[in-house]
Amino acid sequence: MSDSVPPAGPDPVERILAAFTSVGRAMTEFAENLRPVAESLRPVVEAVAKIARDPRVQAAIAGDLGLDRRDCHCLCAEVHGDDPGSCEGTSVSAVRISGMDVPMCAPCQAARAASKLSGPA
Q1: 74-102: pLDDT as tens digits
Q2: Model's pTM, two decimal places?
Q3: Which residues pair with residue 97 across a beta bridge?
Q4: Domain ranges in the chain?
Q5: Do residues 111 and 83 touch, judged by C-beta distance below 8 A?
Q6: What's the farthest any 2 CA atoms get from each other in the chain?
């Protein structure tokens, strides 16, 4: 029997260091190649940002997405149960009820005001 130890490969720490060094070089090269591309896109990005900041564009986008519209939250059956089809579904403003702002469409607000004026039945 021989007491010889088989030859060991490269030290694992050295292999890891070499791998990280290689990755670091590749990342540096990638960043250097990406810089001119990013710089060439700068005017385009600035132009798009300027357009996006325009209040008219923001209003148009909000209108298309319905961000300025809310649904009517009237309790139609209680407020105007005799005319359930009068609700338009989209609120025009909010009415304060029990300390909360409740969005309501114009017909529901009118029916609510009329029921308050007529008093308890």
Answers
A1: 887 777 777 778 888 888 888 888 888 88
A2: 0.40
A3: 100
A4: 12-64, 69-118
A5: yes
A6: 113
